[in-house]
## 1
Amino acid sequence: MTMSSGSHRARYVLLPLVIIFLFARTASAHEGPPYPLFVDQKVDRYLISVWTDPDVGEALFFVMISAQEPAEIPADLKVQIGVQPASGRLPETFYSGERENVQGNIQYRAAVHFDAEELWRVRVRLESATGNAETLATVEATPPGYGRWDLLLYLFPFLAVGILWVIAMVHKIKRRTGDNHA
């Protein structure tokens, strides 16, 4: 029994893909949009909303701040995000937020590190020369993605199209060789 040239070509196409899949490292991919931890919570004279994508590894926090009058938000306002496992196994660690102007609104973005899937206490601290304020919340750190399975999941449509193309080419070649022998 001999291998047809179509299956021989398919082996050369599929072999590198299988090797890539087997040796791929875990990819840190964003699996969805941030979700609200809380919205329009009154903290001192501000209303703040915190949205997060709490993946294990690098987690993103977005803190939106509003006030009755935009002039009430001091230019020197700093936002710090403090995180600590709810179990208390690690001390609280603070991360500074970077101020961003997004469509005329004031937002702070902070990248926070979670080392494990578990419940975390989150402290949002607002600091300025006019005074300090803070609030607390709890969030559950989530896995960063499917790891190796991400590659297979996202590669599947391309593999399916490639396999269908190989099958179509094999049928086309068989028809041509069948017509020539008749």
## 2
Amino acid sequence: MGNEMVLEKIIKGMKKVAITLGAGLALTGSVKATEYEIIRLLPPDPNCNSSESYCINDDGAILGTYACLDENPIRGVDPTIWRKNFFYKDGEFREFDFPLNATSKINKWGDILARNIVYKINDSKDIDINGIDLNNKGEVLGESVLYRNGKTIDINVSIGYYFKVKSINDNGWVVGYLIEDHHYGFLWKDGVTTRIDGLWKAYDINNNGTIVGQYEYNPPKLYPGLWKEGIAIQLPGGPGSANAVNDLEQVVGNTSVKARPFIYENGETTFLDTLIPEDSGWTRLYAASDINIKGQIIGQGYFEDNIYRFGFLAKPIQKPKTLTADSNNDGIVNGFDLAKLGNQWLEREDWYEE
């Protein structure tokens, strides 16, 4: 192919890039909120009228409990007649006989941490510690120790102060908070403790080292907060807490005012109750506790009335992808998109034809 023909095709291709960019300029700015299918976690037992979700792994498996409550429960009192534990995935429920609670965890391999026992497929192991968290390497975080390869490692966070651990990532890094005359979040990494100035409490850490929790601003007011590369920031949306972060840097939590769950991504906070589909049966969502790598969120809400509470699974609705000027889907049309689209046209000669 001669140089003149190549140049002509490049010019034609760039014209088409310009047309596409012109059509896509409206995308510049904030990203449109994702649409969700909000599933009620309702086990098949006909007596069940309440449920609670504890955690979700990257494969979409959820641990929780369900119960039969009194017909006229009193707020602030647990009128449970009976309670059972469940495992949920892809619409299927399975009951568990072993005890689960809010600290129970499941990793991507299906290993389940229930207090002092790790349950594996056709096996279980007593780890002789009170388990707080479990990572994808099978390491268990205890109240003051890390259980790794059959051995326990002391977590020497501080001397003379009480501390509480909350989460461990796949690198073996631990976060939590110190309880002194003042609260401080901390990061325990390779045996070295770093105080997280700005975070009153640290609740979760992803594999990138991003930490979320409560940001202290104008005490005693606490706001959802994020710490990354030595910098702590307050997330928008009002007082509350950031509870979990995934490796895509998506953060979920709740506000303390009117108890509204939110997701924070790309610099924007979206309240989940504004995304409830019409005629879904949900009257209010009030908590978001965990999010996995697929962007699936679990939490709590009220269904059809404000008496009985159920766990929910909010699954992002995947829409068919169309050719757009925003080639990397970051909500902004810029030079990166221009270069990527130009390469696409250069690779496909039929796109040059008029």
## 3
Amino acid sequence: MTETATTAGTVMAAAAPGTLAAQDVSVVVDGRALVDRASLRVAPGEVVGLVGPNGAGKSTLLRTVYRALRPTSGRVLLDGHDVRRMSGKSLARQLAAVLQESAGDFELSVYDVVAMGRTPHKRPFDGDDTDDRAIIMAALAELDAAGLAQAPFNRLSGGEKQRVLIARALAQRAGTMVLDEPTNHLDLRHQLDTLRLVRRLGVTALVALHDLNLAAGFCDRICVMNGGRVVTTGSPSEVLTAELLADVYRVDAEVTEHPRTGVPHITLLSGADHFGKG
């Protein structure tokens, strides 16, 4: 077996891919509906992209999925179980989250940050065993970050921190992942590598993305949000149309089929000033 195959096998999810569903989820803060009766479903092993303009409610919806926020109404189910009724350890064994923010500057080494992903699989005060160490280093290697293992996390660049936090989620070995802008701060190569990795792992994944061309290239389906609501859900070719981009993003765009990949490719032609200003 090659080293690459061994590494990939080490970080494959231990838990089976789950079925993730949001059912009529609303989040109201100070009288304002940040999410308004949003429903979606991600089938086992499916990668669903969550897209929409700033303020559409994507991050708020994701926070309800991984239980950082309590919905005002509705519920989130993982394999039919309400996530709010699951124990923290049970949920963490099945669902891993990569947040948009770095959650502060840890005064820890990169290795120790990634090792946090092993916590749901241990008893209190357990140290890292041989399997843990192999999983941690394999997760770092997948993100091209093995050489950073002993570096202080708080001295890393934004892109390096993002890769380490994704490695931490990999080390969790959950079958379902929620990723909020995982390509944020990453250069082009690491953006592609990260999304390829998510697909290769075979996990159930709900991924918020700003780059619609990346979403078209890597997602099985795309869920579009605007104004806190789910506008439409479907395959990239069904969803990413010039009409939708005009309605939701207020941009004039040309959508063509990429000659090599066959997926929709978006070329922006103008911004909001195109509309109604002659």
